[in-house]
Amino acid sequence: MQPSRQSELELIKLTKRYGNTTAVDAIDLRIPSGSYCCLLGPSGCGKTSTLRMIAGHEDASDGDILLGSRNITVLPAAERGTAMMFQSYALFPHLTAQENVAFSLKMRGVAKAERLKRAQDLLERVAMGGYAQRKPAELSGGQQQRVALARALITEPSVLLLDEPLSALDPFLRIRMRAELKRWQLELGFTFVHVTHSQEEAMALADQVVVMNNGRIEQVATPHALFNAPATEFVARFMGGHNVLKHNDQTIAVRSDRMQLLRTPGRSSDALNATVQAIEYQGSYVLVSLGAEGDLTASDDLSVMLQEAEFFNAPFEVGTAVQVSWRAADAHRLSA
Ligand code: ADP
After folding, report:
1. Which is nearest to 196 in space by CA: 156, 328, 183, 181?
2. pLDDT tens across 231-244, in order?
3. 47 CB under 6 A from ligand 1?
């Protein structure tokens, strides 16, 4: 399979309205050819609507979708050069793995011998050649996932669209299949657009993470840039691992693992007094949750991640009064 070089995807003022609800609000986005892009955000932020418009399963209310040099906005799904990988439970239960994979070729009128051969080739490609005659119920969750991938690849798409493909799997399998998805994407070399509400999944997989909120894009960045320089308060809170503080009339984010805890309350300007409220052992780190005094905190909770050894050298206890501080260089300014 030769993925097209022309698999760059561009969304221009793409909009989806359902009656009075604007689900996707004039978003602009460029997804480079051959990259792994994750659309990330809380439930209802417009991820699935965006993916379904790219797939052609939902009409765009406004705006354009370009794939390579083609405007695909109003093309039928089957003519776009995109394919959707559904969750494994969307396999047809009464068909064999091979028949499942061959299904869309059948719909396109490809002769039986030809479509079964192509399906078998693809099953071999995802290490499922020996399971061609099994029905989905006779396969493990991970094996079903591979069949679902082969089924999506049979139309030789230049963009693969994945809608929460791992959410039905148990946590161990999810992490394993996540690694497989990444490997397949590198091997196949074409563009993957993957919808998820899990920051961890997006961080693990994506070259480019698109954080969405309320039908709009909050930030587009690499996982590393997103975690080290969240652009907005929403992104800092959604990604987790940050404290959002109001400091000198600015809103700042400081990574939880970049904060220091001292036993003696004090009055330094880049510090605040707090009380330890909970301690959670997390292996390499110990998570210390704090209730802060004064008006420095933007909100509710404050957390500090201490290296395991540092914590156990002189453990804090619930109720201990402490001073939380950070280096100015670790404070990252947020826009509203
Ligand atoms: P996400 O995938 O991020 O959870 P969706 O794209 O599914 O978000 O939904 C975005 C918004 O559009 C939500 O407010 C949702 O309720 C609404 N919505 C989605 N699909 C429909 C529909 N078919 N009819 C009406 N409203 C919808």
Report:
1. 181
2. 999 999 999 999 99
3. yes
